[in-house]
């Protein structure tokens, strides 16, 4: 099963931390080893490191016309900072991997199952059934 581990950031949660402490939250000196272990085990599918929300654009189609805005206007200081896609036998293993992400010490990491959208998965999305 594939799972998406969503890592959120809240700059307020990082206030007061030293540069070294912040570096440790993203994995510190052990980051390359952690990633290597997950890849060697065949569990890590993808790492997504997102730019700041100020670099984002949004699009919404209104009356058939795409309306593009420069960025989302967040009502919270928290934003999606990145994600991992893992393929593991169970949600328990996905939760173990999430708990091992150093950032879990200051922010919650959301673990969400990914549905496959092969033909059978697409058929399940069909609102006509």
From TrEMBL:
This is YCII-related domain-containing protein. It comes from Kribbella italica. It comes from the Bacteria. Residues 1-116 form the YCII-related domain. Pfam families: YCII. Belongs to the YciI family.
């Amino acid at each position: 099963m594939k799972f998406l581990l969503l890592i959120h950031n809240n700059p307020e949660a990082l206030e007061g931390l030293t540069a070294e402490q912040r570096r440790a939250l993203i994995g510190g000196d052990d980051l390359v080893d952690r990633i290597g272990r997950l890849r060697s085990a065949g569990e890590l599918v993808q790492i997504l490191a997102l730019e700041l929300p100020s670099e984002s654009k949004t699009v919404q189609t209104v009356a058939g016309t795409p309306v593009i805005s420069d960025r989302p206007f967040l009502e919270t200081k928290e934003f999606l900072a990145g994600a991992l896609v893992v393929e593991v036998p169970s949600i328990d293993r996905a939760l173990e991997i999430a708990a091992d992400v150093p950032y879990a010490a200051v922010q919650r990491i959301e673990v969400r199952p990914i549905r496959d959208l092969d033909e059978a998965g697409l058929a399940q999305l069909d609102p006509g059934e």
